[in-house]
Amino acid sequence: MELTDKIKKLKKEKNAVILAHNYQLPEIHDIADFVGDSLGLSMSAAKTDAEIIIFCGVHFMAETAKILSPQKTVLLPDKNAGCPMADMINADDLKSLQDAHPKAVTLCYVNTSAAVKAQCDYCCTSANALKMAQNILKNNEEIIFIPDKYLAQYVADQVGRKFITWEGYCPTHAKILPENIMQAKKLHPRAKVLVHPECKPQLTELADVVASTEKMCAYVQNAPDTEFIIATEIGIIYRMKKENPGKSFYPASDMATCPNMKRINLEKVLWSLEDLTYEITVPQDTMDKARLSIERMLQVT
Ligand code: CIZ
Ligand code: SF4
Q: For labelling alongside 59, which of 38, 118, 223, 253 has CA 20 to 30 A away?
């Protein structure tokens, strides 16, 4: 039997749902029940009656799914699929920052461990970071925004404030350089430039649109334009082409590939279903506190 047929059969037998992050390999997009961003996927999976969630993504995403579906078994097909940005800050680091700025409200990007989420006031995604910051600033003066210094700077510039930040960043998005955009624009002068806010500020300055992965997918679908230069992890281009067969998509840089996202393949998904590996667990107390920061975000957005 083909790998994909085996996966489909076992998925039914075990009442599992397969989630694929936008940055996954094409063959993983093709076998998934849902493709999307980390929060959207976790929320979709929570609504299903599946007993098992296979999260094709990285560790903090599977933790987020577990936080929102504590009764379900959540599996990450490769236990080493982590996010270097999320690993750049831990709960103790955040505690020191909070102790140094006792009046500040903590806004943490979804790319953080459950332990860090448990210690922040609000969670945010790249799709709603600006809205969250605007909302917090209605009643508060200071924001600690962790861990992504580039996303923090982008949002701070938009609201015209300075945030207390952390030295975190995404090594994959940081690989995309302004000259890559300039060159792509020369080759495709009519193309719209879409840049993810995890990219360096020199890139967001060159963008026609700065957007999260889901907002990028919606934009390219609805825009009258037919050509797009995409500055984010290149896995998303497969989804864009699939959803918009008449349009053309050019990666700003072929270097923008996340090695952790690419750890997941069809064999590992099958093994994950067969052996129920690797189960994601989060201590109850951490899970409950982390869920609060997500619920507070959902009340605002
Ligand atoms: O939240 C996500 O899935 C990430 C990491 C990025 C995005 O823009 O969707
Ligand atoms: Fe983390 Fe960057 Fe990979 Fe996303 S693309 S999982 S932020 S390292």
A: 253
